[in-house]
Amino acid sequence: MTEPRQVYLDNNATCRVSPAVVEAMLPFFGELYGNPSSMHSFGGRVAEHVTRAREQVAALLNASPEEIVFTSCGTESDNHAIRGTLEANPEKKHIVTTKVEHPAVLNVFRFLAKRKGYHVTELGVNKQGDLNLDELRAELTPDTALLSVMAANNETGTLFPIDEIGAIAREKGVVFHTDAVQAAGKIPLDLKKLPVDLLSISGHKLHTPKGIGALYIRKGTRISPFMIGGHQEHGRRAGTENVPYIIGFGKACEEAMNGIFEENNQVRKLRDKLESGLMSQIKHTYINGNPRWRLPNTTNIGFEFIEGEAILLHLSAAGIAASSGSACTSGSLEPSHVLMAMEVPFTYAHGSVRFSLSRYTTEEEIDYTLAAVPPIIQRLRDMSPFYDPNK
Amino acid sequence: MWDYTKSVMDHFSNPRNVGKIENADGVGEVGSLACGDALKLYLKINKETGKIEDARFQTFGCASAIASASALTELIKGMPLEEAEKITNDDIARFLGGLPEQKMHCSVMGREALEAALANYRGVKVEEHADAQVICKCFWVDEHKLREVITENKLKTVEEVTHYTKAGGGCGGCVPDIKRILADINGPEAKPEPEEKPRMTNLQRIKLITETIAVKIAPMLRQDGGDIELVDIDGYDVYVKLRGACAGCPGAKATLQNIVRETLRREVDSEINIIEATK
Ligand SMILES: Cc1ncc(COP(=O)(O)O)c(C=O)c1O
Ligand code: FES
Questions:
Q1: Could you identify which of A1, A73, A343, B116 might form a hypothetical disulfide with A213, taking C-beta atoms 3.0 to 4.6 angstroms apart as the criterion?
Q2: What angle do CA A153, A158, A159 make, to 5 degrees?
Q3: Chain B residues with CB inside 8 Å of A317's CB?
C-alpha cells in the first residue's frame, strides 16, 4: 500500500520550514546562548550573528541594516507601524487604508476609528481587485497622518503598485506604510528606489518557523516605540532578542534573495500549469484577482454553484491542503471581505479556493492535484440545486 | 478545522438520498446562493398509508449542510406524516451525534425545507407570514422564524441566534432588533446590553460636553429659574458653577448636580464627573 499523498498548497497561510534555516538556528538553542547585549564574549559572539542576520534581512529589501527592527510577527510589525506613526504625529486625525487589507491592518484601523476617534477612509477596489489611484490621491489631505496599502494581497495575490502609491503619498506629505508580508521574497523589493516609509514582513511566509517578523523603518521616519523597556533595537522595540529566530530569519531572507528570480519563475510555471489545467478541465470557473499583476505563487479560483468548505474537506481527504475565504471555514458567515470588496458574484464567491505554492511544490504534486480536483468539483455540483449539467 | 463527529463526516463524504424525485408529491426549497447555503427537498408520499415513501435532496452548502440534509432524508423515510411534522432541528443534529454550535443553522435549514415540502404537498402555499417583518436583511430572516427558532431551542444570546439562523452574522445591522426579540421572549433577565459608544478624543469630548450643556442642560435649568456656567474641563472632570432657583439650598444643589451629571454621562461618557467650581 502506498502512503496517502500529501500536497501542501496553502503557502500563503504558512510555509514548510527550510532545512537550512533550522540548521542555522540550532546552535542558538545550544552552546550559543549569550545575551547579545552583554559585555562579554558569550554575548559578543551572539551579537555578531544578530548583526549578520540584520544585514541579510536588509539585503533582501535593499535597505540599510539600521532600518530593520525585529518583531515577533507580521501582525506586530503592522501594529507598530500604524500605532507608532500616529503616536508620533498626534495632531493629525485622518488615516487611509484599503478594504482588502489583512486583518492585522484593517482591524487596527477599525479599532482606531471606534475607540480613538480617528477618521478612517477605506478605499474600495474594482472587480479585479485594483485600486483607483485618482481616488486615493483625492483622499490624502493635510490632516492625513498615514496611508497603509498592502504590497500583495494574501487571498488573491493581486499586487498594488506601491511605487506609484508611495510617490503620491510623498507628494502629499503623508507617511506610507505597506504590508509586504506576502510580497517579500516573491517579488523583488528595492527600498532604495521604492518611496516607502514603513514596510512589514513576516518570517513564516519565508520558510522560518512561526513567530518572527521585521519592520523596515526608513531613516528619518517619525515613529514611537511599540515596546518600551531596554535599549534593544535602538530603543525602538525593547525586549531581549529572540535570537534563534532572528538568525533563522536572516538565513531565510538570504535563501529568498538567492532564489528570487529562478525559484519564483519555477513556482510561476507550476502555478500557471495548475491554473490553466483547472480552468480548461472544469467549466464555470473564474480567476479572482488581477491575473496579469499578481504574485507568482497564488491562484484564487471560483467554482460556481458549490461551497468552499465542502471543496476543502474533499481536497483534504485526497491529501491536498488549500484554503478558502469561504464563510463557513472562517467562522464568519459572509464570504471573504476581499472577495466581497471585489463584488465577486455570489454564484462563486462562496465556492472560491486559494491554491498557494512554494519552492517546495513539485510538478508531480501539481499533476496529482490536476487529476484529483475535477471529480471533486463534479461530485459537489451534481448535488447542487443550482447546477444545470446541460449548460 | 471544525470538530465534526464521525457521523457528520460520514454523511458528508457519502451522502444518502442525493438527487431529485420526478413528479414528487412535495417539494420544499430554502436558502439561496447569496446566503451561502440552500436545500431543495423532494418527497414521495403514499396517500393511502400517509407515509413518506422516499425523500431526496439537492444542496449547496458546507459539510454540515450536506450532512444535515442527508440525515434529514434518512430520518423521515418511512415516517408517517404526522410524525414528520414534529421533526425539529435538534432531531437532525442529534441524528448526527451533534453539530458544532456555529453550524446549527444547517439543521434549522433542514427542518425548514421539510416544513416547506409538507406544505407544498398539502397544496397550502408555504406559510408566508406576509405580516412578519424581515429582521435580518443580510440573510433574509423574518421575525416569525426568529421567534420560532429562539423559542424552540431556548436561545438566550445574539451569538446563539446567529449560530442557529445566521441572522446578525453579516453587517450586524439587525443585532438591536434581535436583542429586542430575545428580551421580549426571555423576559427582562436577557436585557439588551448597552450599545458601546466609540471612545472620543479629548477635543471631541470637550466639544460634546460644551454643546450638551448649552443645548440640553442650560435650557432645562433655566426653565426652573436656575442656570449653569461651564468653568473648565479636565479629562472626564467637568467644572461647573450651578445656580438653583433657591440658591444656597443644599438639597436643591444636589438635585441639580444629579441632573447635570446624568445628562452628561448619557450623552457623552459614563465616566464624567461633575465638580462645583468654587470661584
Ligand atoms: C498580508 C498579511 N499581513 C500580515 C500577516 C500576519 O503575519 P503574522 O502571521 O506573522 O502575524 C499575514 C499572515 O497571515 C498576511 O498574509
Ligand atoms: S441585517 Fe442581519 S446581519 Fe446584516
A1: A73
A2: 90
A3: 13
Instruction: Kindly report the number of other CB atoms within 10 A of residue A292's CB atom.
Output: 8
Strands A175-179 and A198-202: parallel
Question: What is the predicted ipTM?
Answer: 0.86
- Which chain B residue is nearest to residue A110, measuring alpha carbons? B198
Structure confidence at residue B37 (pLDDT): 87
Would you kindly state where each structural domain of chain B is located, as residue ranges?
A: 6-121, 134-186, 202-276
Identify the pLDDT of residue B203.
Answer: 85
**Active-site residue, selected from the candidate residues A15, A73, A253, A328:** A328
CA distances from B210 to A157, B199, B204, B222, B256 (A): 50, 17, 10, 16, 17
Chain B hits for A306, Cβ within 8 Å: 60
A371 and chain B in contact, CB less than 8 A: no
Q: Which atom of ligand 2 is nearest to the CA of B170?
A: 3
pLDDT exceeds 90 at position B215: no
Which of B34, B59, B62 is facing A383, going by the closest CB pair?
A: B59
* H, E, C per residue of A161-218: CHHHHHHHHHHHCCEEEEECCCCECCECCCCCCCCCCEEEEEHHHCCCCCCCEEEEEC
What does the pLDDT look like over A76-131, one tens digit per residue?
999 999 999 999 999 999 999 999 999 999 999 999 999 999 999 999 999 999 99
Q: What local confidence, expressed as pLDDT, does residue B169 receive?
A: 85
Closest CA to ligand 1's atom 9: A74
Q: Which residue of A116, A307, A313 is in closest CB contact with B37?
A: A307
Region(s) of chain A under CATH 3.90.1150.10? 7-15+260-383
pLDDT in tens, A15-24: 999 999 999 9
CA atoms within 13 A on the CB side of A19: 2
Which listed CATH number (3.50.50.60, 3.90.1010.10, 3.30.43.10, 3.20.20.70) goes with B6-121?
3.90.1010.10
CB atoms within 10 A of CB B123: 7
**What pairing do the DSSP bridges indicate for beta strands A298-303 and A285-287?**
antiparallel
Task: Tell me the chain A residues in contact with residue B13 when contact means C-beta distances shorter than 8 Å.
Answer: 314, 317
Give the pLDDT confidence score for residue B95 in this predicted structure: 96
* Architecture of the domain made up of A19-256: 3-Layer(aba) Sandwich (3.40)
What is the third-level CATH fold of B202-276?
GMP Synthetase; Chain A, domain 3 (3.30.300)
Question: How do strand B237-243 and strand B227-234 relate by DSSP bridges?
Answer: antiparallel
Assigned CATH topology for domain B134-186:
Arc Repressor Mutant, subunit A (1.10.10)
Our CA-based measurement puts residue A381 at a distance from the nearest CA of chain B, in whole angstroms, of 8
Contact status, residue B180 vs residue B165, Cβ threshold 8 Å: no
Strand partners, B229: B241
Mutation site for A-interface testing, chosen from B60, B66, B109 by largest number of A Cβ within 10 Å: B60
Active-site annotation holds for B138: no
DSSP B57-77: EEEES-HHHHHHHHHHHHHHT
Domain A7-15+260-383 falls in which CATH fold?
Aspartate Aminotransferase, domain 1 (3.90.1150)
- Residue A326 is predicted with a pLDDT of 63
Question: Catalytic residue at A328?
Answer: yes
pLDDT at res. B243? 77
